[in-house]
């Protein structure tokens, strides 16, 4: 049993020894989301201000870890009035909670697990990973998944006269990350 444990620790250490650190390139990255609106259509949005670092192992072409931040004030849904409401106290409360933070806790071949913190609430989430690979001094990947916004205290909604609600609880995430070798 001790040999197996030591072997697994050795593999984990070897993987991180060959990984290089990359800085997220905000101009070539996108933190997007989609939410059902008025029960009939989707609203797409993104956060323009994303930053962070990640470790990528060029030898195995694998993401090793990721730490990222998104600034709430940079939300863009192509509707200024809606964007201002999203930043307000009753939704994201950007004044008190200016950032969304993600820190990976485990990376598997096609899955990234990590702690997502929004409005002071931290939950471990699972995201699907599409590895883009590395080329020269750049590396990239795509993450996608779903969260329930109410799990993070984002609970504003409005009942519709016809039944249903203005905004679904489920939010689809689509995040494209490109980084530059540090």
Specify the biggest β-sheet.
8 strands, antiparallel, barrel
For the record, what is the CATH homologous superfamily label? Answer: Lipid/polyisoprenoid-binding, YceI-like
Strand order of the largest sheet: 1-4-5-7-8-9-10-11
CATH T-level fold name = Lipocalin
| Strand-pairing-aware structural class | mainly beta
Which architecture does the CATH hierarchy give at level 2? Answer: Beta Barrel
Q: How much strand?
A: over 45%
- Low-pLDDT stretches: 5-16
| Count of alpha/pi helices | 2
The radius of gyration is: 18 Å
CATH class: Mainly Beta
Q: Distance N terminus to C terminus?
A: 39 Å
Instruction: Please give the number of β-strands.
Output: 11
Proportion of helical residues: 10-25%
Number of self-contained structural domains: 1
Domain Lipid/polyisoprenoid-binding YceI-like: 21-180
Pfam family, one: YceI
Keywords: Signal
Signal peptide: 1-19
List the helices and strands and how they pair.
Blueprint: H1 2-17, E1 19-24, E2 30-37, E3 41-47, E4 50-57, E5 62-71, E6 75-76, H2 80-87, E7 99-107, E8 111-118, E9 121-135, E10 138-148, E11 167-181
Antiparallel strand pairs: 1-4, 1-11, 2-3, 2-11, 3-6, 4-5, 5-7, 7-8, 8-9, 9-10, 10-11
